[in-house]
C-alpha cells in the first residue's frame, strides 16, 4: 500500500502536500526539510548521520550539504515546537548522528495504520565518528542505580488502584544536570547539585518564588559536592564533599553566618545516590551513609555530643542509602541494596529497630521522599521494565501512581506546597563495536529503548545485549540484520556472558521472587538451569576453553568468586571480596575486581597469591575490564575524558582510545569482541532539569 501520511507522535505528516499538522495547527515544510524528515522516518532505527543526509538529499555536495543539514535539523525542531511539541524529538547520538525518537506509524491510502518501528533494525554503518558530548550516567540510570548492577525483580501483577495526573511546571532549564534535589521545609528554596560539561558538581540554591532567579553557589573550592539536605529551621545545609583523593566528608554550611564546618569523615558516596538526611523534627541529628569494610551502613551524628553512632545493620556487601528520619514516632526509612538477592527494598526501621518492607525486592529503587503531613512515601522505582513513581502509605499499601515524563531520578516533596519535585533526564544508551586500530565503528545497536552491556559471540559474530525493549529486561541477539528477544517472558535478566567456543551463553533470570542461573543456546533457543545450590549468582564470565563459568556467588550474608565446571563441579576461589573475575593467560590466572575498591588484581590459583596490577579502575566500573592476547583492557576515567587503557605483564599502560568524560556506561561498559575490536555501551549526551508536580489536595 502506498504511504501518503505518517503519524509522528501526536502530529501527522502529509507527504502529498509536505505539511506537518497537530490538532488544528499546521506547518508547511520546505522541500529539503520534508526530505530530511522523511529520511529519518524511513531509516533503520530512525537514525541519520550528517554524511548520509548530504549524500542522499544534497547529492554529495559537501559545502552546500553541511550548511543545509544543520539548518534543516533546526527547522525540523522548530516546526514541532511551533505545533507545541516541546520535547526534543531529535536525540544526538555520539558517533552515529541524530535519531528521531517520537513513535511513528505509516498511514496507507486505506487509512490502515502499520507500526513501522516495532522490530528495531540495526543502524547502517556510518562513515564518520561524530564527537561525543558530555553524558551522564544516570540514571541510570538512571533507573539502574546501585553500586552493583542489579537487574532482578519481582514481577508486578496487582492492578494499580489510582493514577494521578498532577499539574506540571518546569523549575529549571539550565544547561547541564541538576541532581540531588532537596526542597526547603518552608517550600521557598530548592538545593541541588549542578554540573555541566567537565565541571565538578557543586551545591546551588534556587529561589522557587522567582522563576527568573539564577542559581546561587553556596560553597567554594575544587571539590565534588553532592547530596544536600536542609536543617528543620532551613538555616543550615548539610552536604558531602569528595576530596581529590576520593575521601568523603560530611559538612554543614551555616547559611546565615556564611561559615562551613566539617562534621564527619569516611562517608559513602556514589554519583546519583542520596546519602545524607537531616531529621525533619530534630535540629541536632544528622543521618549519613558510612563506608565500612564490606558494607555501607547508616550512622547518626549528634550535634550535642558530637558523636557518631550506628543506626542500621546491613549484611555483607549490602548498601544502605537514601536515609529519611520520618518523625519522632516512626523511625528511619532507607533503601537497602541486597547483594544476596540482587534486589533492592525500601525499608522502615521503627523505634524498636524492627524492619518493615515498604517496597520489597525491586530491580532498582532510585530515590524516595516522605510526606509528614500525608503520611505517605513517594518512591521512584523500576516496575515492569520502566520507571514508576508510586505513592505508598506507611502500612506499605499502594495508594496511587503518579503520571510523569522523561527519566525521573532524585525526588523531593514539599508538604507546604503539596508538590513533588523531580529531576528528569533525557538519556539513553546504545552499543558500538569499535576497531582498535582506527576507531572505526563496525556495528551499532540502537533503538528508542535502552540497549546496553553487549557481549560478542565469536562462533557466529552475533552480539547479545541487555535491553528493555519488551516489558521486562531481556537478553536480545543482534545478527547485523535484526534483533531478537532470546529470554522473552522468562523474567528480568541480568548481564549476559557468552561462550568463547560455541553458541552458548549464561544469564541469571529473576521471576516470582526466585533467581535462576541458566545456560542457553542462541541457535536452538533452549535453556538449561544450572544447579548451584542456594547461591545467588551475578557478574558471570566464561573460561577460555568454554568449559566453566566464573561468577560472584552469595549465600547467607557471605560471598565469594566461584568456578562452576560444566561437568557440575563447583568450587570457591580463595580471593577476598572478589566482585568480578575473568580468566587470564592460563586457567590458573584470574584477573579480578574487589567489592567497593578501586583497581584490578592478578590472582594465581596455584599459590592463592594476588597482586594489584592497577588502581585506575573505579569501583563502580568493577565489570569494565577483560583479558585479551596478553593485555588487560579497562576503563579509566578523569573529569576530562574516559580512556580505554591496556596494561601488559610488565604493568606498562597504553591508551587505546579516548572519549569525552562520562561517555561510557558504568559497571559493564566494555567487553572484548573479535580481537581486533571491542564493544562499548555509550551514552547519549545527557541533560537533566527539575520539574514540579503539584498534586491534588487530600481531603
- The structure class reads mainly beta
Mean pLDDT, as a whole number?
85
Principal-axis shape equals globular
The number of helical runs is: 3
| Low-confidence runs of at least 5 consecutive residues | 109-160
| Sheet with most strands: strand arrangement | 4-3-2-1-8-9
Number of extended strands: 60
**Fraction of helical residues:** under 10%
Radius of gyration: 25 Å
SSE layout and pairing:
Blueprint: E1 3-8, E2 11-14, E3 19-22, E4 25-28, H1 31-42, E5 47-48, H2 50-57, H3 62-82, E6 90-93, E7 97-100, E8 104-108, E9 113-115, E10 139-142, E11 163-164, E12 167-170, E13 177-183, E14 189-195, E15 202-207, E16 216-217, E17 224-230, E18 236-242, E19 248-254, E20 259-265, E21 276-278, E22 285-291, E23 296-302, E24 308-310, E25 319-325, E26 332-338, E27 343-349, E28 355-362, E29 365-371, E30 376-383, E31 386-393, E32 398-402, E33 407-414, E34 419-426, E35 429-435, E36 441-445, E37 451-457, E38 462-467, E39 474-478, E40 483-485, E41 492-493, E42 497-498, E43 504-511, E44 514-521, E45 527-529, E46 536-542, E47 548-555, E48 558-565, E49 569-573, E50 578-583, E51 589-594, E52 597-604, E53 609-614, E54 625-628, E55 631-637, E56 641-647, E57 653-660, E58 670-672, E59 677-683, E60 687-694
Parallel strand pairs: 11-32
Antiparallel strand pairs: 1-2, 1-8, 2-3, 3-4, 5-7, 6-7, 8-9, 12-60, 13-14, 14-15, 15-16, 17-18, 18-19, 19-20, 21-22, 22-23, 23-24, 25-26, 26-27, 27-28, 29-30, 30-31, 31-32, 33-34, 34-60, 35-36, 35-59, 37-38, 38-39, 39-40, 41-43, 42-43, 43-44, 44-45, 46-47, 47-48, 48-49, 50-51, 51-52, 52-53, ...
Helix pairs in contact: 1-3, 2-3
Amino acid at each position: 500500500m502506498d504511504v501518503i501520511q505518517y503519524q509522528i507522535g501526536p502530529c501527522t505528516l502529509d507527504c502529498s502536500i509536505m505539511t506537518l499538522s497537530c490538532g488544528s495547527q499546521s506547518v508547511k515544510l520546505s522541500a529539503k526539510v520534508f526530505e530530511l524528515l522523511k529520511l529519518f522516518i524511513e531509516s533503520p532505527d530512525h537514525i541519520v548521520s550528517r554524511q548520509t543526509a548530504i549524500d542522499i538529499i544534497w547529492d554529495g555536495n559537501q559545502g552546500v550539504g553541511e550548511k543545509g543539514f544543520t539548518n534543516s535539523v533546526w527547522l525540523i525542531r522548530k516546526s514541532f515546537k511551533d505545533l507545541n511539541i516541546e520535547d526534543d524529538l531529535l536525540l544526538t547520538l555520539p558517533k552515529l548522528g541524530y535519531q528521531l525518537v517520537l513513535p511513528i506509524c505509516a498511514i496507507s491510502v486505506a487509512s490502515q495504520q502499520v507500526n513501522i518501528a516495532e522490530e528495531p533494525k540495526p543502524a547502517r554503518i556510518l562513515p564518520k565518528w561524530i564527537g561525543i558530548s558530555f553524558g551522564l550516567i544516570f540514571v541510570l540510570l538512571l533507573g539502574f542505580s546501585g553500586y552493583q548492577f542489579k537487574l532482578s525483580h519481582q514481577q508486578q501483577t496487582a492492578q494499580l488502584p489510582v493514577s494521578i495526573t498532577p499539574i506540571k511546571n518546569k523549575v529549571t532549564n539550565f544547561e547541564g544536570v541538576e541532581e540531588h534535589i532537596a526542597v526547603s521545609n518552608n517550600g521557598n528554596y530548592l538545593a541541588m547539585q549542578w554540573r555541566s560539561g567537565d565541571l565538578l558538581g557543586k551545591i546551588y540554591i534556587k529561589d522557587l518564588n522567582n522563576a527568573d532567579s539564577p542559581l546561587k553557589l553556596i560553597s567554594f573550592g575544587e571539590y565534588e559536592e553532592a547530596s544536600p539536605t536542609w536543617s528543620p529551621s532551613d538555616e543550615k545545609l548539610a552536604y558531602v564533599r569528595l576530596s581529590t583523593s576520593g575521601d568523603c566528608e560530611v559538612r554543614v554550611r551555616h547559611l546565615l553566618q556564611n561559615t562551613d564546618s566539617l562534621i564527619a569523615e569516611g562517608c559513602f558516596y556514589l554519583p546519583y545516590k542520596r546519602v545524607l538526611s537531616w531529621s525533619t523534627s530534630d535540629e541536632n541529628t544528622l543521618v549519613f551513609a558510612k563506608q565500612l569494610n564490606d558494607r555501607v551502613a547508616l550512622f547518626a551524628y549528634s550535634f550535642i555530643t558530637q558523636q557518631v553512632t550506628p543506626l542500621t545493620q546491613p549484611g555483607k556487601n549490602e548498601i544502605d542509602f537514601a536515609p529519611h528520619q520520618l518523625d519522632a514516632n516512626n523511625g528511619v526509612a532507607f533503601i537497602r541494596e541486597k547483594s544476596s538477592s540482587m534486589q533492592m527494598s525500601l525499608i522502615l526501621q521503627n523505634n524498636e529497630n524492627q524492619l518493615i518492607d515498604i517496597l520489597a525486592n525491586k530491580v532498582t529503587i532510585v530515590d524516595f521522599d516522605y510526606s509528614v503531613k500525608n503520611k505517605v512515601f513517594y518512591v521512584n522505582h523500576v516496575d515492569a521494565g520502566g520507571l514508576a513513581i508510586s505513592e505508598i502509605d506507611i502500612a506499605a499499601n499502594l495508594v496511587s501512581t503518579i503520571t510523569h515524563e522523561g527519566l525521573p531520578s532524585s525526588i523531593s516533596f514539599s508538604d507546604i506546597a503539596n508538590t513533588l519535585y523531580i529531576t528528569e533526564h533525557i538519556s539513553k544508551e546504545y552499543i558500538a563495536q569499535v576497531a582498535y586500530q582506527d576507531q572505526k565503528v563496525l556495528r551499532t545497536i540502537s533503538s528508542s529503548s535502552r540497549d546496553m552491556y553487549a557481549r560478542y559471540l565469536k562462533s557466529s559474530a552475533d552480539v547479545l545485549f541487555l535491553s528493555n525493549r519488551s516489558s521486562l529486561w531481556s537478553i536480545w541477539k543482534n545478527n547485523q540484520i535484526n534483533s531478537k528477544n532470546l529470554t522473552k517472558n522468562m523474567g528480568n535478566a541480568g548481564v549476559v556472558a557468552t561462550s568463547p567456543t560455541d553458541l552458548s551463553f549464561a544469564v541469571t533470570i529473576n521471576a516470582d521472587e526466585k533467581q535462576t542461573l541458566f545456560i542457553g543456546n542462541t541457535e536452538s533457543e533452549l535453556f538449561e538451569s544450572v544447579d548451584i545450590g542456594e547461591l545467588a549468582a551475578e557478574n558471570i564470565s566464561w573460561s577460555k576453553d568454554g568449559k566453566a563459568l566464573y561468577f560472584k556467588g552469595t549465600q547467607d550474608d557471605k560471598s565469594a568468586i566461584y568456578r562452576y565446571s560444566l561437568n557440575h563441579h563447583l568450587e570457591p576461589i580463595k580471593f577476598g571480596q572478589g566482585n568480578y573475575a575473568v580468566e587470564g593467560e592460563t586457567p590458573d590466572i584470574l584477573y579480578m575486581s574487589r567489592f567497593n575498591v578501586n583497581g584490578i588484581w592478578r590472582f594465581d590459583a596455584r599459590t592463592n597469591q594476588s597482586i594489584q596490577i592497577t588502581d585506575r579502575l573505579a569501583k563502580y566500573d568493577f565489570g569494565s575490564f577483560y583479558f585479551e592476547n596478553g593485555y588487560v583492557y579497562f576503563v579509566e576515567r578523569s573529569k576530562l575524558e574516559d580512556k580505554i587503557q591496556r596494561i601488559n605483564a610488565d604493568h606498562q599502560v597504553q591508551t587505546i582510545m579516548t572519549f569525552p568524560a562520562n561517555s561510557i556506561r558504568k559497571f559493564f561498559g566494555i567487553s572484548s569482541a573479535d580481537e581486533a575490536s571491542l564493544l562499548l555501551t555509550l551514552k547519549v549526551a545527557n541533560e537533566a532539569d527539575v520539574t514540579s508536580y503539584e498534586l491534588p489536595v487530600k481531603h
